[in-house]
Amino acid sequence: HGIDPNADVNWRVFPQDLLPMVLQKGEIQAASGSDPIMWRLTQQPGYREIGTNLMDEYANLSCCVVGTRGSLIREQPEVAAAITHAILQAHAYAAQHPEAIGSEFNGQALNTTPQEIASVLKTHTHGHYSVGNAFVNEIDVYARDLKAINVLRPETDPMLFAKGITSNVLV
């Protein structure tokens, strides 16, 4: 959106639970974090979401990726496939049953409620996941963006990077 994250932003690090306070005090103008803290901010007057991994071109990309050792994929592909299949099933279930997930997850969470967890889940894209070439293409998008902000080296080929770190264990 016309902002160079390396040159135009003065990055500061705060514990995530302090972000609402430092925003309110005017010590920072924007914050980046994860839910439920950031979701709570969007529910308060005077705060708005300006960008997430669920907007614009990212709205239809996988937002969460699980990595595994290459040796697991090579030596026990059936285990890697079973783990992947279970995660995809969990994502689908979470997308269809956010209230049930909120109730179950609440026992593992601090300072939240089942209703809040369900509300947060309803804003996420757990119903979207890609495999195979579609997933490689999505990783390529992320890699191009990471290259543009100097997280990946300038000489990195995003598509080769995407192909090199993915494996379709479901074939």
Please give a quick description of this structure.
The chain has 171 residues and is mostly helical. It has helices at 19-24, 37-42, 70-75, 77-96, 98-106, 114-122, 132-148, 158-164. The longest helix is centred in the middle third of the chain and has 20 residues, at 77-96.
Structure write-up:
It comes from Pantoea rodasii. This is ABC transporter substrate-binding protein. It holds the Pfam family NMT1_2. The structure is a single chain. This protein has helices at residues 19-24, 37-42, 70-75, 77-96, 98-106, 114-122, 132-148, 158-164. It has 171 residues and is mainly α. It starts with 18 loop residues before the first helix and ends in a 7-residue tail after the last helix.
Keywords:
171 residues; mainly alpha; 47% helix; globular
**What is the typical, i.e. mean, pLDDT?**
91
Task: Give the helix/strand class.
Answer: mainly alpha
Distance between the termini: 38 Å
> Biggest sheet: strands, sense, closure?
none
Rough outline: globular
Which consecutive residue ranges, at least 5 long each, have pLDDT under 50?
A: none
**Helix fraction bin:** 40-55%
Q: If you compute it from the alpha carbons, what radius of gyration comes out, rounded to the nearest whole angstrom? A: 19 Å
Pattern of helices and strands: HHHHHHHH
Total beta strand runs: 0
Query: β content, as a range?
Result: under 5%
